[in-house]
Every structure is written in C-alpha cells, then in structure tokens.
Write a structure and sequence with these properties.
Radius of gyration of chain B: 20 Å
Strand content of chain B: 15-25%
Largest interface: A-B, 46 and 46 residues
Distance between the termini of chain A: 48 Å
Helix content of chain A: 40-55%
CATH superfamily of one domain in chain A: Thiamin diphosphate (ThDP)-binding fold, Pyr/PP domains
Mean pLDDT of chain A: 96
Number of helices of chain B: 12
Strand order of the largest sheet of chain B: 3-2-4-5-7-6-12
Low-confidence stretches of chain A: none
Strand order of the largest sheet of chain A: 1-2-3-7-6
Shape of chain B: globular
Strand content of chain A: 5-15%
Largest sheet of chain A: 5 strands, parallel
CATH class of one domain in chain A: Alpha Beta
Low-confidence stretches of chain B: none
Structural class of chain A: alpha/beta
Helix content of chain B: 25-40%
Order of helices and strands of chain A: HHEHHHEHEEEHEHEHHH
Shape of chain A: globular
CATH class of the largest domain in chain B: Alpha Beta
Oligomer: heterodimer
Number of strands of chain B: 14
Number of domains of chain B: 2
CATH topology of one domain in chain A: Rossmann fold
Structural class of chain B: alpha/beta
Radius of gyration of chain A: 19 Å
C-alpha cells in the first residue's frame, strides 16, 4: 500500500471514519441487492460493491465546497459526499421522504445543496455537466473543484472527448475520474479499447493523465488530492483512471456470462476494504475489535435506513405534475 | 418609434440583460470576433470580453452540457447553437439532462438557460441546415419552446426566456433576421404563453408560426381583395401554448387553417388542430380544420424545389378558400 503525504485534514480519526464509510457503501448496496432479488424494490439498480475505494477515497480529499457528478453506479459517491442513507434508501423504495421525493430512483439521486450534482442514467451524460459546473466556479470565482465520475464505457462516448477538450482549452477546475471496472455492461475493456490505459487519452487533450490502483484507498486519496489541488490552482483538468472491479453484475438482470468466476475470485482478493483495514491496523490506528465495531455500526445504520424507508409514506398522486418546471 | 431588425433585436435583448446581470453569459461556435454564423453576436465580444462571450470548439454536446451544468450551479447561459439542425448532436444534454434534472431530483435545482438557434429553409443551405424541428422539443416535458416572428416579439420574448428559470429553446427564423419592425429601446418582456393577434378578421382564423406568420399576412392581403377577412393568430410560444386565444378566435370565425413550415407529419400543427377539436370551439366549426405544413421530404438545394417543399402564399390562399367555401 502506498503511503504519500495526505492533506492535513485526513487525520487518523478521519481514516478510521472512512473505513466505516466503506462498509456503509458496501452494506447499502448489498442490502439493495437482496431487496431486488426478493422483488421488494422495482425498477433497476447498479451496484458498486468492490469499488468502495474510488468513491470513499476520492471524495475524502475534497473540500466541503467541491462538487461531484456521478453515474448510474452512484450510491457510493452519494454516501461519500455526505448523503443520508435513510433518504437514499427511501428514494430506492420510491418514498416521498427520498432524495427525489420518489421520482428519481436509484439512477438520479442528487443533493445539489451538498454539491452532489447528481447521478446520471446516460453513460457519459454527466461529463459535460461537470465541465459546466467547473465553468461556474471559474466565472463566479467560487474556488471549488468538480470531481467528475464516469466509467470505462463512458470513455468511448463523444461527450467524453468533447468535454475533456473543452475543459482543457479553458483550464477549468475539474478532475475526471474514470472508474475502470473492466466492463461496460457486458463489453470488456479488452474488446472495446485498443489501448491498455484509458488515462493515456489525457495526452490527446494536453492534460495530465494517471493510472492508479482503484482498490487502494491510499493511492486513490493521494492521486485525487494531487489532481484536485492542481485543478484548483488554475492549471486545468486532470484525467485519472482508477482500475477496479464491480463484484456484482451490471444491473439486476445480469447472469455474468461475459466473465469467469475465476476472474471474479482474483479481484475479490484485492478487496479494497480488507486492504484498507490491514493498512490501518499496521499503522496502529485501528484494532480488530474497533474494526468489527465499525462494521457492525455500518450494518445497523443500513438496517435503520431500511426501517426508515419502509415506514415512510408513498408520494401522493397530487405530486405527479410538480417540479416539471421551476 | 425606432425600427431595427430582428437580428438587432435579439442582440439588443442579450446585451441589455448582460449589462444588468453578471450571471448571464453567451457561449457558442464562432460567436467571438466572427460574430456568429449570422452575425447576431457581432460586437458583443468587444463589449463583454471573451469570458462572457465564450467562443467554443465545434462540440455541440459539450457546450450544451456545459450550459446545463453552469445553469444548475448558478449561471444563466445563453447558448447559440449555430444551426437548429445541430440540436441532434446536443440532444442528450437538452432532452435527457436539461429538461429532466429538476424533476428527477424531486424539485431540487433548476436549469435557467436559453438555447438560441436559427431554423428554417429558404437560404439554399439544403437538407442539414434548413430544418424546422421545433415539434421534437415541444414534445419534451421540462422544455419551453419559443418561435418569434417579428423583431418586436424577438426582443421581448428573449428577455422573458433569459429571465425564465427553465431551459428555453428559442428558434430564430433565418429569413426573419433582416426584417425590421418597431422596437422600443428600453428592455421589455413578453410573457411566454401569450399568443399575439397579428391581424384581426371575422371569416377565418389562420394559426401561423415564425416565417409563416408573414406568408399568412401576405395571403390575407390578397384574400381581402376577394372579400375574405382573415384573422391571424401567432402563438409565439409553443410551450407554454396560449390555447385560449386560439380557441376564442376559432369560436369567432368558425373556420381555421393551421400553417407551419415544419414537415406536416408529426408537426406541431397536429397538436394545435387537436386542441381546437377537443375544445368548445369544435361546436363552432363550419368546416374541417385544415393543416398546412412542409412536405415529407428533406429540404432540397435547388431554389424551386426548396420553395415547393414548404407552404407558400398561394398554398395558404388556396387552403383558406377551400375552408371558407366549405359547405
């Protein structure tokens, strides 16, 4: 595990909190997975189990004022940006107490006030939005950076190309973070790219690009912090490619025929939570007992979120036409 | 009162808002020293500088999305989309993002932006630079759609669009850019959703949009010589639509022709005709509702073919006569 200089606000206490946050992300999605299997939630969902470090690690190094744009696989980003798991779970249950009053569901959770400009159901759809938000930061001199999440699949969308170029020529404060989880639905990066690293594309836009181990919390934090401060200083955008893996299928209906069980087992050995725990214990800031206690706390918080969601009311039909226009 | 062109009216509305509100800015392709493909933004970069008149690369998806993202975070962008045909490339950002973010987020966040874009045929630019695709946009809940037909309307409607907290698609007809009318120097606003009676008459109503308002006015002059008194309603905005003014006019005349340049099949005229048919005006109809629109063909290059593809004054005269003579 890498160990560079982290910002001062990443204290030992914060690191321990992040360990719990990773469990919160994992349990949230594990729980959602169970509900879908039982048919207790309708629609669809995309789970980020196995990718907790890219969400928790990169958002941990942001300042409060910084913003994110997220993806269809966005529950982790949302939790890391400080969202309430109660309101998130309620949204997945379609309840009026949810983040979007039950109108958005899994793919559209946003908390604009808190700087989460929203998950997005369109692959690559959020990338231009991030550039626009960064433009506001520049024009209003607000000093915030936008962290723009997207997957490997989105890197083959036109919006990726157009947005990276635009952000580059205008030196906008945005960090593009590609969570390369190896598959765009069923399409393997091995088949859909003729390059080994998506980050190599940064060169084409005249911006720095970096490949990192997305399952290594420390490496994620270090790389994103460096990139965010580079962007904040006015030097322009950065492209980071975090190599990771989604343990679950693409969405609820995925039989995972496009990959082997052996490959899945190999990646499970690189479990980001386990690796972070080992690091924290080695560093002497976490004990086995404390780790267990935090894991249990996270588990209970998700159980509480479920209870909150279950007892929350359905939206009234009167709200159907509300909020189409401001 | 002073007369200025439609193009100057659009520019004046933008400049007046930009002087007043630092959050209003302009982005688009070749809008800097070039002044935009049609010259609408000429002189603006000199007054407002390159930060607020942002010349962009040819990247319609990214610039539309940048407008949405900046609107969501507190700016009030005006995006000039060089030709309205290019909306196809910006479609995801307008339809899936701009139009829906507020609703999907349960009413949190708003997207106050204007997409100004030149539409219509008549310039010999052929199939990919001459379309009238406003019905696509009118179909999408969350967007507003404006089609000014005069310089006066253009200025007042553009101010209203800039002041609006929602994404507004503002169609400027290319053939109208040079057309002059009386336009007050001071800023004024024409509410979105308020139709304008471009001519009062008692025998037949023509509901016409954009360039067709002027063709209908010409037709009305000819028809007057034959004793047919035409009323012309210009909806000015398709979303929201002033249904009341249309319905009241049809109740008065009992006969109606709906005319637009866009292809008739799936065009907005079908919507207007249906609204009339579903309304209390139905009982007042003395003839079937008639629709005139573009033929189902890409806009051709040859000037004679190009003209034949969209309704012209004689087509309107013929349609009105058939409607008036219907027993």
């Amino acid at each position: 595990m890498s160990n560079h200089a982290l910002p001062a606000f990443i204290t030992d206490e914060k690191l321990v909190e992040l360990y719990k946050q990773m469990w919160l992300i994992r349990y949230f999605d594990e729980k959602v997975d169970q509900f879908f299997a039982k048919g207790m939630i309708h629609g669809t969902t995309h789970l980020c189990v196995g990718q907790e470090a890219t969400a928790a690690g990169s958002i941990a190094v942001l300042q409060e004022k910084d913003k994110i744009t997220s993806t269809h696989r966005g529950h982790g980003h949302c939790i890391a940006k400080g969202a309430s798991v109660d309101k998130m779970m309620a949204e997945l249950f379609g309840k009026v107490t949810g983040y979007c009053k039950g109108k958005g569901g899994s793919m559209h959770i946003a908390d604009v006030e808190k700087g989460n400009l929203g998950a997005n159901g369109i692959v690559g759809g959020g990338i231009p939005l991030a550039v626009g938000a960064a433009l506001t930061s520049r024009m209003k001199n607000e000093g915030y950076v936008v962290l723009c999440f997207f997957g490997d699949g989105a890197a083959n969308e036109g919006s990726f190309h157009e947005s990276l170029n635009l952000a580059s020529i205008w030196d906008l404060p945005v960090v593009f973070i590609c969570e390369n989880n190896q598959y765009g639905m069923s399409g393997s990066v091995k088949d859909m790219f003729n390059i080994e690293h998506i980050a190599d594309r940064a060169q084409a836009y005249g911006i720095p690009g970096k490949v990192i181990d997305g399952n290594d919390m420390l490496e994620v934090m270090n790389a994103v912090y460096e990139a965010v401060e580079y962007a904040r200083s006015g030097k322009g955008p950065v492209l980071i490619e975090a190599k990771t893996y989604r343990w679950k299928g693409h969405s609820k209906s995925d039989a995972k025929k496009y990959r082997t069980r052996e490959e899945e087992q190999e990646w499970r050995k690189k479990d980001p939570i386990k690796r972070f725990k080992e690091y924290l214990m080695e560093k002497g800031v976490l004990t086995e007992e404390k780790a267990e206690q935090l894991r249990e706390e996270a588990f209970r918080e998700i159980e509480d979120a479920v209870a909150f969601a279950e007892k929350s009311p359905e939206p009234s039909l009167d709200t159907l036409l509300e909020d189409v226009y401001a | 009162m002073r007369e200025i062109t439609y193009l100057e009216a659009v520019r004046e509305a933008m400049s007046q808002e930009m002087r007043k509100n630092q959050d209003v800015y302009l982005l688009g392709e070749d809008i800097g020293v070039y002044g935009g493909a049609f010259g609408v933004t000429r002189g603006m970069i000199e007054e407002f500088g390159p930060e607020r008149v942002r010349n962009t690369p040819i990247s319609e998806a990214a610039i539309a999305g940048a407008a949405v993202g900046s609107a969501l975070t507190g700016m009030r962008p005006i995006l000039e989309l060089q030709f309205s045909d290019f909306i196809t490339i910006a479609m995801d950002q307008l339809v899936n993002q701009a139009a829906k973010l507020r609703y999907m987020y349960g009413g949190k966040g708003k997207v106050p932006m204007v997409v100004r874009t030149p539409a219509g045929s008549g310039t010999g630019a052929a199939a990919q630079h001459s379309q009238s695709l406003e019905a696509w946009m009118a179909h999408i809940p969350g967007l507003k759609v404006v089609q000014p037909s005069t310089a006066y309307d253009a200025k007042g409607l553009l101010k209203a669009a800039i002041d609006d907290d929602n994404p507004v698609i503002f169609y400027e007809h290319k053939l109208l850019y040079k057309m002059k009318s009386h336009v007050p120097e001071e800023p004024y606003s024409i509410p979105l959703g308020k139709a304008d009676m471009k001519r009062e008459g008692k025998d037949v109503t023509i509901v016409a949009t954009a360039m067709m308002v002027h063709k209908a006015l010409e037709a009305a002059k000819e028809l007057e010589k034959e004793g047919i008194d035409v009323e012309i309603v210009d909806p000015r905005t398709l979303v929201p639509l002033d249904e009341e003014t249309i319905v009241e006019s049809v109740k008065k005349t009992g006969r109606v022709v709906v005319v637009h340049e866009a292809v008739k099949r799936g065009g907005y005229g079908g919507e207007i005709a249906s609204i009339i048919a579903e309304s209390e005006a139905f009982d007042y109809l003395d003839a079937p509702i008639k629709r005139l629109g573009g033929l189902p063909v890409p806009i051709p290059y040859n000037p004679n073919l190009e003209k034949a593809a969209v309704p012209q004054v004689p087509d309107i005269i013929k349609a009105v006569k058939e409607t008036v003579q219907f027993k």
